């Protein structure tokens, strides 16, 4: 499993997601896309700067290298990986799945997707997708991502997006940086994610 960070960077909470996946029997790796930089939860302006200044080509290389590493690791089997990500990482999870084709078998993005001009060429997407969206999200509106899901299904892709009523962006982050953590919704989304990954990896 490749785990992709929120806009804060490779913070302990993301490392904790790797640990949780490991506890479920997966081999999980979170590449440090900011190369050592990160923002505290009180530094939203810095987080925004780090996200917008992330070179897309470097991020793509780092994510592809993470896939290379996992596929070659002695603890893994098979010829494909799963990818999950949160916020910015959810968007990047879908981008790398579209770019890497059959090397990605399953994608579980949380409240993030490439929309508008940021959308990739979806013809390379072969992975199954199960996303988890906040109903009230100013960063990545669930309505727009739901439309994307409809479009991808019409193109023959295996895509499901769950919308969690009453939730806001970041609802699955137990450190609650935006004041939106929803314990019940997060538990449901996590259970669905683990079941989905087990069925496709």
Descriptive key words:
17% strand, Rossmann fold, 41% helix, single chain, 201 residues, alpha/beta
Task: Describe the fold and architecture.
The chain has a single domain, classed as Rossmann fold. Helices cover 41% and strands 17% of the residues. It contains six helices and five strands. The protein has helices at 12-23, 44-52, 56-72, 88-100, 142-154, 183-200, and strands spanning 2-4, 81-86, 104-110, 128-136, 159-168. A five-stranded parallel β-sheet has the order 1-2-3-4-5, with helices on both faces. Helix 4 links the parallel strand 2 (81-86) and strand 3 (104-110). The chain is globular. The chain starts with a strand and ends with a helix. The model has no long low-confidence stretch (mean pLDDT 97).
Say how many strands there are: 5
Computed over alpha carbons, the radius of gyration is 15 Å
CATH architecture: 3-Layer(aba) Sandwich
Q: Report mean pLDDT, rounded to a whole number.
A: 97
Strand content: 15-25%
Number of domains: 1
Overall geometry: globular
Secondary-structure class:
alpha/beta
Major β-sheet, in short? 5 strands, parallel
Chain-wise SSE layout:
Blueprint lengths: L1 E3 L7 H12 L20 H9 L3 H17 L8 E6 L1 H13 L3 E7 L17 E9 L5 H13 L4 E10 L14 H18 L1
Parallel strand pairs: 1-2, 2-3, 3-4, 4-5
In short:
Helix content is about 40%, strand content about 15%.
């Amino acid at each position: 499993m490749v785990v992709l960070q929120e806009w804060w960077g490779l913070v302990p909470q993301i490392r904790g997601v790797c640990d949780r996946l490991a506890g479920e029997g997966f081999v999980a790796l979170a590449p440090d896309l900011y190369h050592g930089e990160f923002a505290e939860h009180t530094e939203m302006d810095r987080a925004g700067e780090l996200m917008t200044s992330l070179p897309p080509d470097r991020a793509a290389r780092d994510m592809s290298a993470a896939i290379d590493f996992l596929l070659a690791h002695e603890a893994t089997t098979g010829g494909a990986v799963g990818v999950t990500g949160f916020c910015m990482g959810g968007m990047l999870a879908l981008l790398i799945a579209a770019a890497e084709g059959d090397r990605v078998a399953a994608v579980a993005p949380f409240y993030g997707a490439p929309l508008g001009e940021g959308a990739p060429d979806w013809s390379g997407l072969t992975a199954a997708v199960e996303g988890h969206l906040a109903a009230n999200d100013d960063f990545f509106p669930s309505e727009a991502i739901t439309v994307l899901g409809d479009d991808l299904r019409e193109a023959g892709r295996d895509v499901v997006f769950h919308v969690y009523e009453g939730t806001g962006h970041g609802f699955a982050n137990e450190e609650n940086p935006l004041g939106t953590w929803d314990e019940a919704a997060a538990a449901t989304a996590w259970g669905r994610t683990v079941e989905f990954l087990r069925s496709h990896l």
